[in-house]
Each structure stands twice: as C-alpha cells, then as structure tokens.
Amino acid sequence: MEETDEEQINEESSEDDELSGLDIPEAKLPVLRSIHSERSEDADKLAIREELSVLTFEELQKLKEKIGSKKFNQTLTGVKKKPQVKTDFKRANPNRPREISSKSRKIETRVAVQVPKVFRNDPRFDNLCGEFRERSFHRNYDFVNKMKEDEVKKLKEELREETQPRRIEKIKYLIQRMENQIRAEKKRKLEEEKQEEEKRITIEALKEGKSPYFATKLARKERDLKEKFESLKEDGKLNQYMAKKRKHNAQRDRKHMPSDHY
C-alpha cells in the first residue's frame, strides 16, 4: 500500500512538472490538471469547457502542444477510442471452409517457373542495325530475283503436268505474282541506270564548265513513254497495247457522258 501511494504522488509531481513550463496563470492550473490526468466526470467536463472558453487562443495552442492534440480533443469531447478487437478467423472445424477477411487479405506467394526471356528485335526499327540504304539492299539481295526466275520455270513445268483445277489456279496465281515482281525489279533497275547516266552527264558538263541540264518531270515522262513504245514495237505488241488503251479510254469517257433519262 505504501508503494502505491508513493507511485501516485510521483505521477502527480510529474504532471505538475509537465505543466510548469506553460505561461498560464496558476488560477487555471486545476482545470489543466484535470485535462491532463483525464480523471474528470461529466460535470467536471462541462466546467472544464466553460473555463477553457476564457483562455486565449495562444494559451489553448500552448496547452495543445504540451499535452498533445489527441488527449486534448478526448478531454473536450469525452470520447475515447475503443481498442480494436482482433478477430480470430480460425475454423471451429478443420473440414469447414476457411473464413478470410475481405479487408486485409493475405496473399500467398507463389513460386513461378522462371522462363528465360527471349529478346526479339526488328532490324527496321533498331538503331544498332544502322540506316536503310535502298541501293545497297538491292545490290546485296540481287540473287533473290534470280531465284524467282528459276521458281517461275519450275512452276510452269509443274503447271503442264497438273490436273486438279484448284491446284492449277493456285499455280497460275503464283506465276503471275512472281512475274510481276520480276518485271517491277527490272523496271527499277532501268530507272536507276537512267538516274546514274543523268548524274554522269551532269558531272561531265560541270567539269567542262558548261551549265548542267536537269530534266523536268514532263520531259522524263515523255522520254519513258517513247522508250516504252519503241520496246513494244520491237516485240510486236504495239497493236495489242494500243487496242487495250483505246478500250480503256472509251470506258473512261463513257462514265463522264450525260445519260438520257426518259
């Protein structure tokens, strides 16, 4: 009993020490002690509020900083936070399904199989592969065009021996597509040779001190058309080409002609 009385006396002295640093008149200390010790009843709390209304804002702020905002608010409102009761989710019967809280769900770590990551890169968009140069590309892969010519010959031989209609249509489609690709590649090479020739003539003219001649788009178009007609005439396909051209022009003109509505 003597030890408990001494402990109470020590607690009261420690509370007085905590409140001794405040610059508040001593007449208000009993109220502050009741706030700090939290031993007041309902009637005392009403008296505390009345007496706190007399304090200045500066004194209230010092008091709040000294004892803490949590204890200060609890003393004014008289509401104490209820301790959280830890819910036990153990099963009464191990055969029942486990009850799990929806708020705090424990995620069990899963051991995943570590698969080595495959690095795939597209050389068209990779800076490490350098810049795309069309002329170098076509020069390095010129053998592909020769392979296509050999495949066209093999497909034509296969077409002679094929009897299934669906297979025949497929082979004809492949032959036509590869012939168009070969024709487009030859046309590209011819255009590249023309550009190289024009560049060579321009350089020679500059070396001789003459003004270079730069062909316009219209002049190039007329030159290409003239060369096309000459090549068709040599192959004997000029009449056939002109007949298709006339038919195409007639269909185009017929679309723009006014139609009579009766």
Automatic annotation (TrEMBL):
Region Disordered, residue ranges: 1-25, 78-106, 236-262
Coiled coil: 168-235
Places the protein is found: Nucleus, Nucleolus
PANTHER family: RIBOSOMAL RNA PROCESSING PROTEIN 36 HOMOLOG (PTHR21738)
Bias kind Basic and acidic residues: ranges: 85-106, 250-262
InterPro entries named among the record's database cross-references: RRP36
Superkingdom field: Eukaryota
Gene name linked to the record: EOG090X0E8U
Record flagged with keyword Ribosomal protein: no
CC annotations in GO: 90S preribosome; nucleolus
Subunit structure: Associates with 90S and pre-40S pre-ribosomal particles.
Family classification: Belongs to the RRP36 family.
Taxonomic lineage: Eukaryota, Metazoa, Ecdysozoa, Arthropoda, Crustacea
Keywords: Coiled coil, Nucleus, Ribonucleoprotein, Ribosome biogenesis, rRNA processing
Purpose: Component of the 90S pre-ribosome involved in the maturation of rRNAs. Required for early cleavages of the pre-RNAs in the 40S ribosomal subunit maturation pathway.
Chief localization: nucleus
Biological process annotations from GO: maturation of SSU-rRNA from tricistronic rRNA transcript (SSU-rRNA, 5.8S rRNA, LSU-rRNA)
Protein name (record): rRNA biogenesis protein RRP36
Positions with biased composition (Acidic residues): 1-20
